[in-house]
Amino acid sequence: MKTFFSIVVCSVFFLTTSCDEAQKAINTASNVQLNGNYTINEVMGKSYSPKNLVMGFDALNKSFNATTECNNLFGSYTLDLYVIKFGAIASTKKYCEGKMDAEKEITDALEATGSYSIENGILKLYSANDRSLLMTATNVREINGN
User: Fold this and answer.
1) Hey, CA dihedral for 115, 99, 41, 62, is it positive or negative?
2) How far apart are CA 1 and CA 70, in angstroms?
3) What is the per-residue pLDDT across 58-86, written as a single tens digit (0 to 9) for each?
4) Which spans in 56-100 are helix H?
5) Is the pTM value of this prediction over 0.90?
């Protein structure tokens, strides 16, 4: 009976350790896939293509930043497979007449995000509530052909 119990305990330990390591590998791969800069195309159904809004992800530090027409946004994020959560979003505080709508909409979209996908260099952020599309952005490497 002791041998059977030992085998069960060892098996459970091995399986849980293997699952943790597999999950870490998946999360690392997801971070690497997300890493880089993206040109924001659309936020909450509104096109921002000609505005040159850029969002960047730093996989090593699990941080993000976004450049708008006026201010910069930045903060941290966490990943669990395709679930993404953005931490508190900080911003520079310049006032720019008529150019601050995008940063408010980007902040709102990031705060509401619950998951993401990347396909053919297109990043899509989805709502945590109803999985509606909140934002699309194109990887800068895809735009430049690199």
Assistant:
1) negative
2) 70
3) 999 999 999 998 999 999 999 988 899 99
4) none
5) no
Q: Output the six-digit token pair for 55.
A: 């969002």
Domain 2-144 has CATH 2.40.128.270: yes
**Residues 20-70: pLDDT tens digits?**
544 444 444 445 689 999 999 999 999 987 788 999 999 999 999 999 989
**52 DSSP assignment:** -
Q: What is the distance, to the nearest Å, from the Cα of residue 90 to the centroid of all Cα atoms in its chain? A: 16
Residues 6+ apart with CB under 8 A from 26: 81
Task: Summarize pLDDT for 97-108 with one digit per residue, the tens.
Answer: 888 888 999 999
SS3 content of the chain, % helix, strand, coil (to 5): 35, 40, 25
CA-to-CA distance for 101 and 47, rounded, in angstroms?
A: 12
Per the CB < 8 A criterion, the answer to whether 78 and 62 are in contact is: yes
What is the C-alpha to C-alpha distance for residues 111 and 127, in angstroms, rounded to an integer? 9
Distance of CA 65 to the CA centre of its chain: 11
Length of the chain: 146
Q: Which amino acid does the sequence have at 96?
A: C
